[in-house]
Amino acid sequence: MMQSPLWSIARVLRRNILFLEAPFFTDRYMRKYTRYLQKCGMDIAGYDEHGFIHQSVWFDSSERYSLIKIGRAVTLSRDVILLTHDYSIRNAINAFEENPENVKYKFLKPIAIGDNVFVGARAVILPGTEIGDDVIIGAGSVVKGKVPPKTVWGGAPARQLCTLEEYYKRHKDKHDYTIE
Predict the structure, then answer these.
(1) Is the dihedral of CA 43, 46, 52, 56 positive or negative?
(2) Is the dihedral angle over the CA atoms 16, 140, 111, 163 positive or is it negative?
(3) With CB atoms counted within 10 Å of each terminal CB, which end of the chain scores lower, N or C?
(4) Residue of 178, 132, 140, 180 whose CA lies nearest to 158
(5) pLDDT tens across 145-167, in order?
(6) Cα dihedral angle (166, 116, 75, 147), rounded to 10 degrees?
(7) In three state form, how does the secondary structure of 24-51 look?
(8) Closest Cα to residue 113, out of 97, 102, 129?
(9) 41, 62 contact by CB (below 8 A)
(10) Beta-carbon neighbour count of residue 159 at 10 Å?
């Protein structure tokens, strides 16, 4: 569904105004930003004070917001990218077939993120990815496919590093975290 250019300009202005209050009024920003994403067509749970979406998170264009589902208590850190499309297939087809009309082939797949998920800074979530509940994705990871619940993933390409229980016990024993 293609919106009018005027609607797109209004949407961008509204989003930018929301981003101005993010550093000062986190709860208010998240409530408004969640509603904004829902109005754009994203399937996102209402704000519950346990999650956070940094203003630098890049969601695929607004026509594809409807392909993204985000659960409760999800944290998307700085510069996370959620891609629902990929044009790489076009290059592969063009290498082996004639394409005189320059048809733009692409993959277009949904992304689903479960409840209580943390995605570290600059991670990339690729088309078709399904992340289960209670998952940690490390910073800079490139995630594709199914990520089972209660696991910790990292790397490029991302791979399972440990279970969430192992992660919890390791850091509980070391007590290497702070409490705000």
Answers:
(1) positive
(2) negative
(3) C
(4) 140
(5) 999 999 999 999 999 999 999 99
(6) 70
(7) CCHHHHHHHHHHHHHHCCCEECCCCCCC
(8) 129
(9) yes
(10) 10
